[in-house]
Structures are given as structure tokens and as C-alpha cells.
């Protein structure tokens, strides 16, 4: 029996099996698509809907109310208050943890020995359960008998942070910084490791001092990371919940109530799904704007970096 | 001569850097020390003497926590939830990422678009509509409510897809030519090759879901399915108003498993964070 040359040259077709090659891809992506639709896309559409309805979960009733949820939220003034609190929180956490994180990363990066140990020490709070550490911080900030009042309080006169309308948010922000600095350090260390070594050496040969080497070589090279870190820490600030919930409960008189905590209080604690959906819309808009901004900025910076 | 001056100077600079880093480290580690110190101090001694020094070692606080808190159940819930999320993510996301990166089929672009769109929506922002959906299916207060929303992880699909795109197509091609079915390719080529990526997102997924307090606060109202953070806080607020000793013992028991895990898998965790920027969902 002779085999024709054409048969030898034709590629062997994929073995016909139970899972045909045609439907196989759909079987592989199907479950993911279903889950993404149900838990990511559908909730977005649902938020738009729920904001215009009065939903009673327990009774199972739903009633169209038009803009009533919005007018009520506006009358309470809590959304605006939480927006202000959240943006203040961003100001209190993003710049400090970025500056300190960069300084610490530069310090660790300059060392020859002990880098891994310092990195681990600063990273520890990132891995630790935040809500448990918030309980520890709450104890440190306790009025009069806590360590903060007994040391800092004696020196500065600033006491009982968690019950003060002015100091409660800064107290939460201190914990926020404490927790995320290590995260910023790790991202900056990764960026510093990829700064071209020969450029720094060339600048050194040309007689550039430490500051000039940093400003003209290192800083532009880590530019994309800086943008990225700024946006991701801001997005993290949008979801601040654990610390607020355990340390202050949003108080006193909403002075530390961030958007995420307001959303929980409205929707879950007060069972006001419509009111919670209004807050959700605000959070969603901010989160999507931040990610969109990040994509545009990184694309632009990467283009500029490779000119 | 200048040589030795230079090295002395370099040593001084390095010494100063170490000193500065040590000063910062005091701030980073102080809460951990206070937590341990208070948890091992007898309840009536907590406010006595130096607040930083451990005088009399006592296990009284731990005894009380173990007697009053259903800690074992919280731990088992946590382990169950975290493991189920991870297994679900591997089963759903690895095949999907493979198909989206290495198979050609109509609708692939739509699928990719869906993944990118889902990545833009943090689940924190849509907690309320998801809560409404879950309650419609009677899943509030169940383990499922803690697991299901996280199995289809757009971010890990994105991560795995980058990984598969870095493997030459010829590897998958030769498997096909050898007559392997899609399922066989998946089991014998794709899964083994994706192992490093799976380990990376596995560690991140484990840490973030073990620590999570936000999501349980939305979908749990009692502690039947409570994971450790949620169960402990609920208990503290109800039972231990101002008993700081037991509170710190409870906090220690919450943080401990992760700190041990961190010491073991520290390198992978930090590398994973650097690679994915800490995003897992």
C-alpha cells in the first residue's frame, strides 16, 4: 500500500475527541464569562437601577421612586461630607506614604547588606491582618491611658484623638500610612532595580553629585511607578473601611466617615438599599475615573520613556 | 590614602542609613510589640508600670479568649473559604486565560474586553448590588457568599494571560500535532507550565481573603460563616468593651497565622506584590 505524497505533507488534523476543538474554547471561557458578568458587569447596571427604587429586602418588595433617593441623600448632606472626608484622607495618606516610601526604598537600595531584612520589616504591616492591627491602634490611641496620649499627648497637648472631630481622621490616616508604606517601598524597590546601571555610572563619571544623579537619572526612570503608586494608593483610599469601622465607626459626628463606610452604613446597617446605591454610584464613578486616568498616564509616560 | 578615606566615608554613610532605617522600623514594629506585651500581661497589670515593658508573664488573656470565643470555628471557616476561593480560581481562571491567549475562536475579542472591563470595577464599589443579588438567592450568612464573587478573578486571568503569551506558541502547537485533545493539553501542558504564576496569585489571594474584613461585613449578619477577622471583631465589640488584655490576645491570634506564613513565604509574597502591584481581584 502506497501513501501519496500529498497525504504525508498535509498536517495531521487534531484528534477527534469528546471535547471537540470547536466548542472547547467556549467550554474553557464559559464559566469565567458567566461569573464576570454576574459579579462585575451586572452589579454596575443594577446600581443604576437600584438608585431609583425603594427596595425592601426583607419583605421582598421593590417600588420605583424616581430621584427620591438622590434628593434624600442630598438633604442629609452625608455624601458630600464623606466625599470631603475621603479626599482629606487621600491628602493625608497618599503624599506622605509616597514620599516616605520612596526615601525608605532609596535608603534600602543604597545598602549592600541587610536589604532583605529591612524590606521584610517595613513590609510586615502590609501582610498583617489590618482589622486586628486597627484594634491594636485603637488601644494605642485610647484617651488618657493609651501610649499616644501618654507620650505624644504629654509633649504636644493633643489627646484623645479618636473622640476628637479634628483628630479622628488624622489618627485613621496615621494607621493608613503605617500600613501602606511597606507596599510603596516594595513597588519603588522593584522600579529602582530596573534603573539602567550604566546611566548612573555615566553620570557619576561626568561628576554629577548624588542629588543630580537622582534628579536627572533615577527620578525620570521611576516616573511610571510614581504615577502608578499615586493612583493605586488613591484607589485604596476610596475603599478604606477596616480602620474606620474599628477605630472610630465613622465618628465623632461623621468626621471620619469615608465613602466606603457610608456605603456600608446606609446599605447594610440601615438597610437602605436605594440610599446605599447612591453612594455606590459615587464610589464607582471615582474608581473608574481613577483606573482610566492610570491607563492614560502610564501609556503616555511609557511612550515618553522610550523616546 | 584617599582610598581608605573613601571607604571610611562609605561605611559611615551605610551606618547612618542603617540607623535611620532602624528609627523608622521602631514605628513600624511598635504596634506589634504593644500587642504582644499587652496580651501577655495579666489583666489587672495592663495599666500598671511601664507601658512598654513586659513585667509579669501571664497567659490569662489567652485563656479567656479561648474559653469565650469560638476561635476554632473562625479558623476553620477561614481556611475553608480561602481554600475554596483558590481552587475555584484555578479551575475557572487558568483554562479561560489559556483559551483567551492561545486559542482562536470567534468571540475572543468580546471575552478579552469583558475581562478588561471587569478589572476596572473594584468589587468594593459594587458591594451593595452584589449583596442584593446574593440575598435574592438566599446566600446571605453562608460560606458561598464569601467565596462565589471571587472565583471569576479578572485580574488573575489578566496575569495568567500575560504569562501564557510569554510561552512560545510552538509548545502548544506540538502538543496538538501529537494528537492531544484540548483537555489533555490543558492537564499536561498548561497547568504544569502555569505553576509559578498560580503560586504567585495563590499566595496573594490567600493573604487578601484571609485578612478581609470588608466583604464579610457586607454579606454576614451572624457568625455562622464568620472568618477570623469578622468573627473576632464581632466578638470584641459585643463582649470585651474595655478589656484590653483579651482584646490584644484576640488580635495576636488573628495576626499570628499570617505572620508565620509571611516568615516562611516572605520572598514569594514580596515578589508577587511587586509583580502584580498587590491587586488580586
SSE order and pairing:
The complex is a heterodimer of chains A (307) and B (281).
Chain A: H1 5-9, H2 24-50, E1 53-56, E2 61-64, H3 68-76, H4 78-110, H5 115-127, H6 130-140, H7 147-150, H8 152-156, H9 168-193, H10 197-205, H11 210-221, H12 223-238, H13 242-247, H14 259-269, H15 273-305
Antiparallel strand pairs in A: 1-2
Helix pairs in contact in A: 2-15, 4-9, 4-12, 5-9, 9-12, 10-11, 12-15, 14-15
Chain B: H1 2-39, H2 60-68, H3 71-102, H4 108-120, H5 127-136, H6 143-151, H7 154-165, H8 169-177, H9 182-193, H10 195-211, H11 214-219, H12 228-239, H13 244-276
What does this structure look like?
The complex is a heterodimer of chains A (307) and B (281). Chain A is 72% helix and 3% strand. Chain A has 15 helices and two strands. Chain A has a two-stranded antiparallel sheet with strand order 1-2. In chain A, 41% of the residues are buried. In chain B, helix 3 (71-102) packs parallel to helix 6 and helix 8 (169-177) runs antiparallel to helix 9. Chain B has helices at 2-39, 60-68, 71-102, 108-120, 127-136, 143-151, 154-165, 169-177, 182-193, 195-211, 214-219, 228-239, 244-276. Chain B has two domains: 2-63, no CATH class; 70-276, MetI-like fold (Orthogonal Bundle). Chain B has 281 residues and is mostly helical. Classes of the chains: A mainly alpha (307), B mainly alpha (281). Chains A and B meet through helix 2, helix 4, helix 5, helix 6 and helix 9 of A and helix 1, helix 3, helix 4, helix 5 and helix 6 of B.
Which key features would you list for this structure?
heterodimer; A: 307 residues; mainly alpha; MetI-like fold; 2 domains; two-stranded antiparallel ribbon; 15 helices; 3% strand; B: 281 residues; 0% strand
